[in-house]
């Protein structure tokens, strides 16, 4: 059995016993990348020599008996919105082309302290805005399961990377589903931690009250391994939670007895693909056979999730992205050549407007405009404030649900991976991709997508579990129970 | 409640975005669609509901006011499109 089909958890053990060196492991992944990356295009930046150098240093330290971090010698891919000191960080946007961060994101620091081998940076929708990775200003990433299909988004590069066996571990970020949806569409595991569980310091902000960084892996125990490294309070992030981190890795294989799962009836309306519906229902039956009790739960405001999210997220984005103005970093337009449509505008305003016009893609502009409008005088109450009130009602729905059940179970997406170009001309159609995922971000709860089937055309299907805040331990253990009783997580595309 | 092209142009100034004619047209259409969609929130009575801006129960997280090492001037200016010895250079404001 090739080393690539082993979990990072197993690889870690083999590295520890000396059965495998990090250089050997890293080389195998680099070879896989060399042979397949041109058809997938998951990476925007590869660090081959640096990766091998890191691997060599770790092997040397290990041979000398030095203590090593928890991910020592294991390759990890990082989404391109996580600042890495000295390495181009673009968020897949032209406005940040050439930008070199002077600091590491906390999660990058944690990976380095854990002695991970940072193998490369993955493609994404520009500034994490999108559900297909088609909004990348750099390149399109193809779904390894069907190269004409999208891998999901915005963490499509990281998802494709795991599905194509380019690395055993990857980081993504999730604001409205950007870890869970591509995980589902690529047949891998993706976890969005509770808001505040993982530090956002160094994550280029999209929506500050919704963003979370999380693991994307080939199986549940590896998600536990990676989350263990990432989680924890950070004084650099004033929104990070000062809540103790559970021992995910030690606990993940322990099943939960008397598990109650909540099924939300509103999820099973007409919009849901029949194949997804039956795979998810089969997953629920698997849980019942493992001793879980199923309860039907009402979440009366779930259907308002998209409307709520597509006010709040663009509003926060319009504020967060105002820093990209050509002044301090990134693309600056040459003001002298700018067409002066209005002589009342000063040169600085013209610089801002034309730099941003040239640097941002269509979807980013759309969301900035939407957010600016919804926050503007006369509209703030009707849109932003209203959305924040509905947000509280959505949170209350979750709080009430978790009085009755341990976890929620349901679909991740309404359909499997669609063809490239299918939804690009209809923004609302693309937004509906987030139907089942946005409410977790709005409420700040945790969610995981795990593979639970394949469509007739061989495309992956995921099932989502959600937990109350800071219950990732329970989430991972429940996910592992399913994985242990099925083999969907072992499937990889042949290409 | 549709947006007019004029509304969109005004918002584009607030957003410091220069939009082409084509962009103004498609932006007007798309934003109108989205605004119409999100208006469904009006169906919900939120009279006695407080807004939830943030899902963690923390406020005013402060750090001690201690002088520490921070970015060097050069590191801070490293990505500047235009700079001199000390500062970022931008078109004159005044």
Number of strands of chain B: 0
**Would you identify the CATH H-level superfamily of the domain at 5-43 in chain B?**
Glu-tRNAGln amidotransferase C subunit, N-terminal domain
Largest binding interface between chains: A-B, 72 and 51 residues
Task: Report the CATH superfamily of the domain at 3-254 and 465-490 in chain A.
Answer: Amidase signature (AS) domain
Here the CATH topology of the domain at 3-254 and 465-490 in chain A equals Amidase signature (AS) enzymes
Helical stretch tally of chain B: 3
Parts with pLDDT < 50 across at least 5 consecutive residues of chain A: none
What would CATH call the class of the domain at 5-43 in chain B? Mainly Alpha
Mind telling me which CATH architecture of the domain at 3-254 and 465-490 in chain A this is?
Answer: Alpha-Beta Complex
Please give the CATH class of the domain at 3-254 and 465-490 in chain A.
Answer: Alpha Beta
Order of helices and strands of chain B: HHH
Give the helix tally of chain A. 16
Shape of chain A: globular
Structural class of chain B, by secondary structure, is mainly alpha
Describe the structure in your own words.
The complex is a heterodimer of chains A (495) and B (94). Chain A is built from 16 helices and 11 strands. Chain A has helices at residues 8-17, 22-40, 48-63, 106-113, 156-163, 180-186, 220-230, 248-251, 274-289, 305-320, 347-359, 362-375, 381-404, 427-431, 438-443, 472-485, and strands at residues 43-46, 75-79, 117-122, 169-174, 189-192, 212-217, 260-264, 293-297, 407-411, 446-454, 460-467. Chain A has a domain at 3-254 and 465-490: Amidase signature (AS) enzymes (Alpha-Beta Complex), CATH 3.90.1300. Chain A is α/β, with parallel strands linked by helices and 495 residues long. Chain B is built from 3 helices and no strands. In chain B, 35% of the residues lie in helices and 0% in strands. The interface between A and B is large, with 72 and 51 residues.
